[in-house]
Specification:
It is built from 24 helices and 7 strands. The chain has helices spanning 4-23, 47-66, 74-83, 86-101, 105-126, 129-140, 149-164, 172-201, 217-229, 242-251, 255-266, 278-294, 300-305, 313-344, 353-368, 372-375, 381-396, 481-498, 518-527, 531-537, 549-557, 563-580, 591-601, 621-626; strands at 204-206, 236-238, 399-402, 414-419, 425-432, 444-449, 461-465. The strands form 2 sheets. Strands 3-4-5-7-6 form a 5-stranded mixed beta sheet. The protein has a two-stranded antiparallel ribbon with strand order 1-2. α14 (313-344) packs antiparallel against α22 (563-580). It is globular, with a radius of gyration of 26 Å. The structure holds zinc ion. Zinc ion binds next to α18 and α19.
């Protein structure tokens, strides 16, 4: 028998927790404009209860579908699943966006706690025999069900999802699959966290002005401001965030410091300490290989490619091999030109990885009279963004209106309402441009809400996140041309999400094969360099003068410059990715040895200046893992 005091304490606890849950914004309809997430009211403590309730709700909904006494139909099985899990989707959409764009220790801890919960939940659905029997029954009758093409595709996607999720496995294998999935989910979170911490922990502190030789004024100014922020007032700090790293490698006359910066960058996750990712990499590829075998695929690459346009590894290797030889030849020629430049300056050393950016920049100036320093003033961030918006207006009739009445998760975020030319609402676009310690490296597009019209029109909410150079006290944010292309690229992905016109969320937006999803972004990226488009956005930030024709011409001419190097760099990363994921479990050896063998095979030698950004490539594992 329970003591009355215990009961009353229980009652108080229940009351308090109920009181708290009513405050949780994930538990009520968002009352914000366009029902965007109420970032101003979301706190870390809201996530876990929302995940727990979301999983419980989804479990009950799925159970009801699986045990429905009626015969399986498209509506009571497939459509019903599309309607389920709304609470879980709601919290996941916010949480996973912010874990990438604006995280902290508490959120990282939640991510680790939630990963195995979500992995288990997904397996509970995909390995539910009653549910699978219903999905399979609908799949088998699909051609007689009078389904439209979208519904037919949806049925096929669901069936595939169950089969690929292990629904046909029996006995021990099912438990093994669950275990593998859970382990991978936790390793993924840890891997990302290590890279984030590595990005943040290195700093090069410079205290003598002489050590800044060669660097452009804006890079020096930014470094001074970074020093103040990091508690080194009066000095200069350079970090591994790209807007700090790249100008340093391009311009610093201090060869030893360039070496230090580059080595710090390429050794992220490879320092033999608590942030080292090598063991994680080994475990992940081993688990992936095991899972693929379990599911009846030769390797993980076979498993992944089966649902992509490429279909199988041999086709990927064929494409890579076709490009590799000419690209490598080209890169070797480029290396010779850089070596000659070193000799012409009366210096006597072999071109090294940390020299490549520096001499390539000098050679580009010499050959094409193009200097990153001269170009940047024409690429003020706000002007480039407007250029991308104007292009979407011309191509698709879309308009973009800034909204200041919409909650944001960080003060640097800007929010736009996107409309059709007739004024109809299309969706919401967030932009988030500058590096922060709370943000992952790179640039990406993601959804806060996916378009669908299963039960009335739901409009998309998408985000574009970047790591562009920040404005300084003296200058607005000025982009490199590479940054400009990245802005247009991610904007292409955003348009893909915004212009989605699907009934079912599973098929909406960017939910397409990974090797197709880059099409809209590539198209938009190519527009950036089109002279007519460039003239519309590239205006000098001080004079307002449009970019001169002859400068556009020089940019066009220089587009193939250094492309041997650039191509070899990403192809080598692709080879590595494929090699890591075409192993069978017996092949695993040390990470360095594995990568060495892989790069030897394609002809990159140990002290090759070209190979620097590929050899010792633990840093490339970042890409390897996520692909
Ligand atoms: Zn992309």
């Amino acid at each position: 028998m329970k003591h009355p005091l215990v009961l009353s304490i229980l009652a108080v606890i229940l009351f308090v927790s109920c009181g708290k849950t009513t405050q949780n914004p994930f538990f009520t309809e968002y009352d914000t404009p366009f029902q965007v997430p109420p970032f101003d009211r979301i706190e870390e403590k809201h996530y876990l209860p929302a995940f727990r309730q979301g999983i419980q709700q989804s479990t009950e909904e799925i159970q009801a579908i699986a045990t429905n006494p009626d015969a399986p139909t498209f509506a009571n099985t497939i459509e019903a699943m599309e309607r389920s899990g709304k609470q879980l989707t709601k919290v996941s959409n916010v949480f996973y966006n912010l874990v990438s764009a604006h995280t902290n220790d508490q959120m990282q801890a939640i991510a680790k706690e939630v990963a195995p919960m979500l992995s288990k939940h997904r397996d509970d659905i995909l390995l539910n025999p009653e549910l699978y029997a219903r999905v399979k029954a609908v799949y088998e009758q699909r051609s007689d069900l009078d389904l439209n093409s979208e519904q037919l595709q949806l049925v096929e996607e669901y069936y595939k999802m169950f089969v690929r999720g292990g629904a046909d496995l029996e006995g021990e294998d099912r438990e093994q699959l669950r275990k593998i999935n859970e382990e991978i989910s936790v390793l993924m979170v840890q891997f990302g966290e290590n890279i984030l911490k590595e990005n943040n922990r290195f700093e090069l502190v410079i205290d003598k002005k002489d050590d800044l030789a060669g660097l452009p004024d804006n890079a020096i100014q930014a470094a001074a401001e970074a020093a103040t922020k990091r508690g080194h007032k009066g000095k200069w700090v350079f970090t591994l965030h790209k807007p700090s790293l790249i100008p340093f490698l391009q311009y610093s006359d201090r060869r030893d410091l360039r070496e230090k910066m580059l080595n710090a960058y390429i050794n992220r996750g490879n320092n033999g300490d608590e942030l080292d990712n090598k063991e994680l990499v080994k475990k992940m590829v081993t688990l992936r290989a095991k899972r693929a075998k379990l599911l009846g695929y030769e390797t993980h690459a076979h498993y992944v490619l089966a649902e992509n346009m490429a279909k199988e590894p041999s086709r990927v290797y064929d494409l890579l091999n076709q490009l590799w030889t000419p690209a490598l030849e080209r890169a070797r020629t480029e290396a010779k030109h850089l070596q000659k430049m070193i000799a012409d300056q009366g210096k006597d050393f072999k071109l090294q990885p940390w020299d490549w950016w520096y001499y390539a920049e000098k050679l580009k100036q010499e050959r094409y009279a193009i200097d990153d320093k001269v170009l940047r003033p024409y690429f003020k961030l706000e002007n480039v963004r407007q250029g991308a918006f104007d292009l979407a207006t011309r191509l698709y009739g879309l308009t973009f209106e800034e909204r200041t009445d919409i909650p944001k998760y960080h003060k640097e975020v800007r929010v736009y309402e996107v409309k059709e030319s007739n004024g109809d609402h299309v969706g919401i676009l967030y932009t988030d441009y500058y590096p922060r310690e709370s943000k992952s490296g790179g640039a990406w597009m993601n959804d806060y809400r996916q378009q669908q019209k299963l039960d009335g029109e739901i409009h998309p909410i998408v985000t574009n996140v970047f790591n562009f150079p920040e404005p300084t006290a003296e200058q607005p944010a000025l982009l490199s041309f590479d940054n400009v292309q990245t802005l247009f690229h991610e904007f292409g992905h955003a348009l893909h999400g915004l212009l989605s016109d699907c009934t079912y969320p599973t098929l909406a937006g960017t939910n397409v094969p990974r090797d197709f999803v880059e099409l809209p972004s590539q198209i938009m990226e190519n527009w950036a360099a089109e002279p007519e488009v460039m003239k519309s956005y590239a205006r000098h930030y001080q004079t307002g003068e449009p970019i001169p024709d002859e400068l556009i011409e020089r940019i066009q001419k220089a587009r193939l410059f250094n492309q041997g190097f650039a191509t070899v760099e990403y192809l080598a990363a692709s080879f590595l990715d494929m090699d890591w994921h075409t192993i069978s479990t017996a092949d695993i050896q040390g990470v360095h040895e594995f990568e060495r063998t892989s790069l030897d095979r394609i002809g990159l030698i140990e002290d090759d200046p070209i190979s620097f950004d590929n050899a010792k490539t633990i840093r490339e594992i970042e890409r390897v893992i996520y692909l």
